[in-house]
Design brief:
alpha/beta; Spore Coat Polysaccharide Biosynthesis Protein SpsA, Chain A; 7-stranded mixed β-sheet; 9 strands; about 20% strand
Length: about 240
């Protein structure tokens, strides 16, 4: 791993309570690796002090971008991935629900030839350290089944916020992504599958965040609508290279 270049993308929205301490954890971890890295934080139009905290954060490997308005996590990720320079590009949620230590096995799979490597909470040897409330867990399982059916892909976990890409896969997928909000995960994995990239799932230990911003009813409606949009966009050729 010594000679690789990593771009770590972190989308954020109203994370003033945790962004500094979690950036400290990321910086500390990466500072001890032998490979080179950059951290790209994309603020999705936060209306709290997140951006002020980011601007004050001092690290030579940190690049900060801001969307003028809240556009959705899909838009923040697209911005980050298209600005990335790394040989491998990984995104992680700002709350570090998957421990940053999982970068090691993820990069290992990318180096072995995986084009897209995704963290899975349902793969063999995965664990849930802090579980979601039952309604959210059920919603996640229904979303997985719907995504498998509508996108014709067969993965165990679409929505875990820990995914890695080779540079080519990242540019191909995110240059064509159109979904801004809840179903962005399904879209990028649909595109990776459509473009015949090798997708590898790795088990992760995951902890639920109690202070979730997810509104269940809105998420259900928007997710289903956006899954149908993926099929529609594909049918009219919007995803063609």
């Amino acid at each position: 791993m010594k000679n690789l270049k990593l771009s770590l993308i972190v989308p954020v929205y109203n994370e003033e309570a945790l962004i500094k301490q979690n950036l400290d954890k990321i910086v500390d971890y990466l500072s001890k690796r032998k490979y080179s890295s950059e951290i790209i934080v994309v603020d999705d139009g936060s209306n709290d002090n997140t951006y002020k905290i980011l601007k004050k954060y001092k690290n030579k490997n940190l690049r900060i971008f801001r969307l003028g308005t809240n556009q959705g996590k899909g838009s923040a990720l697209k911005k980050g991935f298209l600005m990335a320079f790394g040989e491998y590009c990984v995104f992680t949620d700002a709350d570090l629900s998957v421990d940053i230590q999982k970068l090691k096995p993820m990069l290992g799979e990318l180096q072995k030839g995986g084009d897209v490597v995704i963290g899975s909470r349902r793969a063999k040897r995965a664990s849930i350290d802090v579980a979601q409330p039952k309604p959210r867990e059920m919603m996640g399982r229904v979303f997985t089944k719907l995504t498998q059916f509508i996108t014709k892909t067969r993965l165990s976990d679409y929505t875990c916020g820990f995914k890695g890409f080779s540079q080519k896969a990242a540019k191909d997928v995110f240059s064509k992504s159109l979904i801004d909000r809840w179903a962005y995960d399904a879209e990028i994995l649909f595109l990776a599958h459509k473009y015949d990239y090798k997708i590898v799932e790795i088990p992760v230990s995951w902890k639920n965040r109690k202070e979730t911003k997810v509104k269940i009813v809105d998420a259900i409606f928007t997710s289903f609508r956006d899954l149908l949009r993926i099929r529609y966009y594909d049918s009219i050729g919007k995803y063609e290279k």
